[in-house]
Amino acid sequence: MQQVLLLDLKDDPAGIAEYERWHAAGNVPAAVTASIRRAGIRDMRIFRAGTRLVMLMETGPDYDPAAKAASDAADPDVVAWERLMDRFQQAIPGAIPGTKWTETTQIYALSAQD
User: Fold this and answer.
1) Are the C-beta atoms of 25 and 106 separated by less than 8 Å?
2) What helix, strand, coil percent values describe the chain, rounded to 5?
């Protein structure tokens, strides 16, 4: 299943550059990458336009967001990573209070046309 999520970065060019450095190949802590894979996330990509981030996430049938959240909350390495990322991130306008990444709703598919 493919999911698309949105998040904003704080409007700080130095912070955005640091955020991108943290996400460069080899810079994300191995424990964080392992937790993503263990959760049944097959692929994850993050794109940026200005301060807006778009995450494309491909999940398998065993992916359970609530189980991932519980596992992450119990993993000190993931907690430390999330605390570090909180310095740079902010929810998009209209996000559910207390959430960071906001899930989108698909409204169009070329494959459904004709």
Assistant:
1) no
2) 40, 25, 35
Residue pair 88/19 in contact by the 8 Å Cβ criterion: yes
Is the pTM for the entire model greater than 0.90?
A: yes
Other C-beta atoms lying within 10 Å of the C-beta of residue 19: 20
Q: What is the pLDDT of residue 61?
A: 94
Q: What is the pLDDT of residues 8-64, one digit of tens each?
A: 999 999 999 999 999 999 999 999 999 999 999 999 999 999 999 999 999 999 999
* Phi and psi torsions of 77, nearest 5°: -70, -40
Give the whole-angstrom CA distance, residue 20 versus residue 9: 11
Residue 12 makes CB contacts below 8 A (sequence gap 6+) with 88
Q: What angle do CA 104, 53, 100 make, to 5 degrees?
A: 65
Q: Quick check: 53 and 6 in contact, CB under 8 A? A: yes
